[in-house]
Amino acid sequence: VDIINELESEHTNSGDILKELRKITNDFTMPEGGCETFDLTYQKFHELESDIFQHIHLENNILFPRLRNLLNK
C-alpha cells in the first residue's frame, strides 16, 4: 500500500508540473510571431497533458482502489 501512496504523490507532483507548464505557456497559446515549431510543440504539450491526466485518472480512480480492495481481503 505504501507504493500506491507514493505513486499517488508522484501523480500529484506530475499534475502540478503540467499545470505550471500550462500557466507559463498561456494555456499553450503560441506567442505572436511564433514559428511552426512553436505551434507543433504546444500541440504536443497539449497531447502530453491529456495523456498524463488520463493515465493519472485511470490509476487513481480505477486501478488503485481495486488493488487496495484486493490487498484488504
Task: Kindly list the characteristics that best describe this protein.
73 residues; mainly alpha; 2 helices; elongated
Give the secondary structure arrangement, pairings included.
Blueprint (H helix, E strand, L loop, with lengths): L1 H23 L11 H36 L2
Helix pairs in contact: 1-2
Compact summary:
It contains two helices and no strands. With 73 residues, the chain is mainly alpha-helical.
Element string (H = helix, E = strand)? HH
Helical content band = over 70%
**What is the β-strand count?**
0
Instruction: Specify Rg, calculated over alpha carbons.
Output: 16 Å
Structure characterization notes:
It is a single chain. This protein is an all-alpha fold. It has one domain (2-71). Helices cover 81% and strands 0% of the residues. The chain is built from two helices and no strands. Helix 1 runs antiparallel to helix 2. It is elongated. The mean pLDDT is 94.
